[in-house]
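testing teh design pipeline on a random one, pls ignore if ur not involved
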């Protein structure tokens, strides 16, 4: 069986400017991969995070330089394939994720089964949250109105005006909130004050309240906090998980950080072993990336798989999202199709 590989850069635009504690964006350039056996095509997506690696241009150079070796990777032996991807692309987790996803998608299409079945997962998933990025206060009513169908909201904080943001949101809605600070609180005292205040605001959990390199302070915050703490920037790869015992209650797993579905499966297993609650998250991605992460959705207590519904125009059709309810498909592989 001879494989072929194609790639292209696609610009995706968000409905609203998307701002977190360390960056502001209104569009993202993602790399879309196609691996074909001549009959079936597997799709993958690389949505690189500036927090961890360089952008799409660096990925294109890696693809051009390593195309022959990529096409020699095993289709069915995912452990050997992932080990090879990590040797080839040690500094690009997003490219690892795109290739691993494309190989898995191709395999699922060839055997005629959806990936969630191959992973021994279930089709029924908990409700996903919808993200409200950091905003000028004047925009918050429009963002809350856009999120009206979604029962769970994830709020980005980590600014000098966090209290004003929360007050503006609470004027618009009394929904359950999940708060993600993206490392924005720099001192333990700030984090304690923020946590103590959020407890009164019907918040379900607190995600990455402090910088990842302040793990000792995060462990102290956990002793103080009545809210569960969920790791994000601290939980990048499978090997990170054992070191987070005592500092966090939950782990957020993202394909673009961990290197793909194969490593995500390892992180699920390690999280279960160390008794962490599991959250599955995403970057701003098309339905390729979101459909891929959704295949593992039934292993999670919490889902934050809204990257595609934040887009003004998603170029692909994959898993559905009805008011936060992720609808896994019965089609082979990811089941993703080009919208055009």
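output:
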């Amino acid at each position: 069986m001879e494989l072929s590989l194609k790639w292209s850069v696609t610009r995706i635009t968000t409905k609203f400017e998307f701002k977190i504690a360390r960056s502001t964006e209104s569009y993202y350039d993602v790399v879309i991969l196609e691996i074909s056996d001549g009959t079936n095509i597997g799709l993958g997506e690389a949505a690189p995070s500036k927090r961890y690696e360089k952008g799409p241009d660096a990925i294109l150079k890696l693809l051009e330089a390593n195309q022959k070796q990529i096409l020699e990777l095993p289709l069915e032996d995912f452990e050997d394939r992932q080990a090879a991807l990590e040797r080839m692309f040690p500094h690009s987790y997003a490219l690892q994720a795109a290739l691993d996803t494309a190989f898995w998608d191709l395999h699922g299409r060839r055997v005629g089964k959806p990936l969630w079945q191959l992973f021994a997962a279930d089709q029924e998933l908990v409700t996903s949250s919808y993200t409200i990025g950091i905003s000028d206060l004047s925009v918050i009513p429009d963002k809350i109105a856009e999120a009206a169908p979604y029962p769970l909201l994830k709020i980005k904080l980590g600014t000098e005006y966090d209290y004003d943001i929360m007050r503006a949101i609470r004027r618009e809605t009394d929904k359950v909130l999940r708060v993600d600070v993206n490392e924005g609180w720099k001192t333990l005292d700030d984090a304690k004050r923020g946590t103590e205040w959020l407890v009164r605001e019907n918040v379900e959990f607190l995600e990455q309240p402090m910088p990842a390199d302040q793990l000792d302070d995060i462990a102290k915050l956990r002793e103080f906090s009545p809210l569960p703490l969920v790791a994000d920037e601290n939980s990048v790869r499978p090997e990170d998980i054992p070191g987070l015992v005592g500092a966090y209650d939950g782990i957020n797993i993202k394909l673009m950080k961990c290197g793909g579905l194969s490593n995500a499966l390892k992180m699920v297993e390690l999280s279960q072993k160390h008794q962490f609650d599991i959250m599955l998250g995403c970057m701003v991605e098309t339905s390729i990336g979101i459909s891929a992460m959704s295949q593992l959705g039934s292993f999670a207590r919490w889902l934050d798989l809204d990257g595609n519904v934040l887009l003004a125009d998603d170029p692909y059709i994959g898993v559905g999202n009805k008011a936060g309810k992720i609808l896994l498909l019965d089609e082979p592989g990811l089941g993703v199709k080009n919208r055009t």
